[in-house]
Amino acid sequence: MPKLARDTQHLLLTVTPGVLCILVFLVLPSLYLMGMAFLTNGPYGLPTLPLSLQAFRELAGFGFLGWSPGNLYTLLRSVWQTLLATLIVTLIAYPAAYYISTRPARWRALMLLAVVVPSWTNQVIRSVGWMNILAPGTPLADFAARLGFIEPQMGLFPSQFAVIIGLVYNFLPFMVLPLYAAFEKLDMAQVEAARDLFASPLSAFRHAVFPQTLPGLMAGVVLVAIPAFGMYVVTELLGGGRSMMIGNLVARQFAQASNWPLGAAGALIMIAVTLIGLKVLRNLGRRLGGDREVVL
Amino acid sequence: MSEPAPPMQQRARSASSIGIDQVSRRFAADAVALDDVSLDIQPGEFFTLLGPSGCGKTTLLRLLAGLDQPDSGLIHIGGRSMQGVPPHRRSVNTVFQSYALFPHRNVRENIRFGLEMQRLSAAEISRRIERTAALIGIDKLLERGIDQLSGGQRQRVALARALVNEPDVLLLDEPLSALDAGLRGRLQIELRRLQRQLGMTFVFVTHDQEEAMVMSDRIAVLNHGRLAQIGTPQAIYEKPADEFVARFMGHENLLPIKKSDATGIETPIGRFSGDFAEGAYLLLPPQSLILHRLDQPAAPDCIEAVVDECLYRGGMTEYRLSCSDWPLVATLANQGRPGPAAGDRVRLEVVTRAAAVLQAEGDG
Ligand SMILES: Nc1ncnc2c1ncn2[C@@H]1O[C@H](COP(=O)(O)OP(=O)(O)OP(=O)(O)O)[C@@H](O)[C@H]1O
Ligand SMILES: [Mg+2]
Questions:
Q1: What pLDDT, on a 0 to 100 scale, did the predictor assign at position A290?
Q2: pTM as predicted
Q3: Residue B55 Cα, ligand 1 centroid: separation in angstroms?
Q4: Which stretches of A140-271 are assigned E, i.e. beta strand?
Q5: Closest ligand 1 atom to the C-alpha of B56?
Q6: Which residue of A250, B135, B271, B305 is 20 to 30 Å from B45, comparing CA positions?
Q7: How far away is chain A from the Cα of B105, in angstroms, using its nearest Cα?
Q8: Which domains does chain A carry?
Q9: What residues contact residue B331 under an 8 Å CB cut-off, 6+ apart?
Q10: Whose CA is nearest to atom 13 of ligand 1?
Q11: Does pLDDT of B184 surpass 80?
Q12: Closest ligand to Cα B223
C-alpha cells in the first residue's frame, strides 16, 4: 500500500507544524497557567506543591486581615470601563465609518490611513502623549478647571477619565475598519426599497442600514472589548491606583508581588469573563439580526 | 395552479392619475437618461413603458417613486405635485428590477414590511399576506429565508411585497422576466385581473413587446430617453411612428421607398400602386404577405421569391425569403399540409391594405 503510506506521510508533513504550533504556544501555556492557579504561594514567592484553592480565595478578597472588596471592585471596574470605552468607540466609529465610506474614492484611502497610522506608534508613547495633554497646567486641564470639573492645579490625569480617553483612542481603529468594510458594501437598493415601502428615513436606517452593518459592528465590538478588558499599559500610565483593571492586577502578581498562583487565577478569571462576554454578544447579535449568526 | 383567490375588497379611494411634464434626467453631460418626456397616465390605466436596455425605463420609475429627482420638468400624481414629496409619503410602491429584498428577513417578513410601516393591525396584515401569497403562488415559501429561494421565486416575493400594499400606483420594473413561460402567462393574466379589480394604476416596464401588447391599455415606446411613440397596442403595432418603433415591435419587412408619386411607390422588390402617405419606409407586417406555391393559380400582382429558411414555430411556420435579393419574412399557418421547403420558389401576394408607410428613425 505505497499510496496510502504516501498519503499518510503527506498528511503528517502538512498538519504537524500547525499542530505543534498550537500545542507549544497555546495548549501547553494554558495548561501551565491552569496548573499554576491551583498551586500554593510559597514563603519566598515561589509556587509550591500542595494543590489548593488559596489563589482563588485571595483573588476573591480573603487575606490575612479578613475580607476586602478590592479585587472584586477591580473586576467590576474592568467590566465597566470596558463597556464604557466600547460604547464611546462605537458612537464615534459608526458615523465616522459611514462618513468615510461616502467620500470620493481617493479621499477614502487617505482618511482610513489617518485612522490607522496612530496605532503604528507604540502604546506607551501614545499614552505618554495623552499624559502631556491632560497634565496639570495644560490648556485642556485649565479649561476643565475653569468649568469646575476638577480642582485648580489638578490635572485631568491620573483619573478614570484619562483611562477612558486612552482606551477609546487606542481601540478606535479596530471599530472603524470593520464598520467601514460594512458600509463600503452597503446595498443601497435595500434602503430604497424600505423608503418605497413607507419607511421614514429613520425607520429605513433601523430596518435596512443597521442590519447590514450589524456583522461589522459585532466584529468591532469583539476586536475592541476583548483587548480593552485585558488592557495593561493605558491603565498603568493614565489611571493611577483607583482606575486599575484586572490586567494590572495580574501583571502585578507576576512582576512585583511575586504571587504567581494569584496571577494565574486572575488570568483564568479574565478568560472566563471574556468567554461569557462573547456568549452574551452572540445572543445579542442573534436577537438584533433576526436569528442570523452574526458573531463568529 | 390552485383554486382562484378570494376576491379582494373593492377599494374606496380612486386610483391616481400620473402627469409627467417635460421631464429630463441627465446623470452626466453626455449621459441623458430621460430627455424631455411628457405623458399622461389615466387613473386605473395599465400603462407600459417599452424600450431597449438603457433607454431610461427604470430611471422614469425611480422619478415616480421619489427615489430620484428630475433635473427639470414636473411630476404630478393624483393631481398633486410630487416636488419635495419623499418616497414614503407617496401611495406608490415598486417591484424593483433587482428585487431589493431584505436578506435578514424571511419571505413573510419581507412581504409584511410595507404593512408594518403603515401600522396596519396584525389581523389585517396576516390576512393580506395570505391572500397575496396565494395569488402569486408563494404561499408555501412564506417561512423560507431569501437565500433559500430560486431567482423566479425571489422575483415573485418582490412582486408580492409591493402588491400587498394595494397602493394607488404600482410600478413594476420587469416583474416577470425571470419566470418560465407558463407561470409568466398565468401571472400576466392575474396581474391584469387584479389591476382591474382593485382599480390601481399600473406602470409596467418590459422590453418584451409581446408582453407589452398582451397586458397594456396603452404603451409608451422609449428610445434613448426620448418618447418615440405612445398609443394602444394595436396602434403601435400596426402604425408604428418610425423605423425604430417598427423594428422594436418585431417587424422585419421594412422596404425603403425609392420613389413615390401620385399613383404609387417604388421599392426594392417592385412597384406598388395605390395612394400611399409620404414616408421613408413601407412596412409589410406578416399578415400583409400571403404565400402561394408556384403550382397554385396565380393571383394578380404577385411577386416571385425564393425560400431561404423555414423556421417551425408551432402554430405556424416562418419563412425567410429573398425577393429580388431583398430579405422578407412571411408566415403560414400549419394546417397539416406540407408547406414550401428551403430552396423552393414561391409567389407572394402583397395586401397593401395591411401595409403602412413610416418615417425614418427620429423624424416622427
Ligand atoms: N446612477 C446612474 N449614474 C449614471 N448613469 C446612469 C445611472 N442610472 C442610469 N444611468 C444611465 O441612464 C440610462 C438609462 O438607464 P435605465 O436604468 O433607466 O435603463 P433601463 O431602460 O431601465 O434599462 P434596462 O432595460 O437595461 O433595465 C443608461 O444609459 C444608464 O447607463
Ligand atoms: Mg431597468
A1: 66
A2: 0.83
A3: 7
A4: none
A5: 18
A6: B135
A7: 7
A8: 70-288 (1.10.3720.10)
A9: B286, B289, B313, B316, B317, B318, B319
A10: B33
A11: yes
A12: 1
Ligand 1 atom closest to residue B61's alpha carbon, by position in its atom list: 18
Where are the alpha helices (H) located in chain B, listed in sequence order? 57-65, 107-117, 122-136, 151-163, 181-198, 209-215, 233-238, 243-248
Tell me the Cα Rg of chain B.
24
Chain A residues inside the 8 Å CB shell of B118: 198
Across B80-107, average pLDDT: 94
Q: Which ligand is nearest to the CA of B32?
A: 1
Contact A195 B88 (CB under 8 A): yes
CA distance B37 to chain A (A): 23
Q: How far apart are CA B55 and CA B67, in angstroms?
A: 18
The pick from B59, B64, B205 for probing ligand 1's pocket by mutation, whose C-beta has the most ligand atoms within 8 angstroms, reads B59
Which chain A residue has its CA at the smallest distance from B104's CA?
Answer: A290
Q: Of A6-20, A217-231, B169-183, which gets the smallest average pLDDT? A: A6-20
User: CB count, 10 Å around CB of B280?
Assistant: 15
C-alpha cell at B54: 438603457
**Is residue B260 within 8 Å of residue B298, measured between CB atoms?**
no
Domains and CATH numbers, chain B: 8-244 (3.40.50.300), 254-358 (2.40.50.140)
Show Cβ contacts of residue A31 under 8 Å, excluding neighbours closer than 6 positions: none
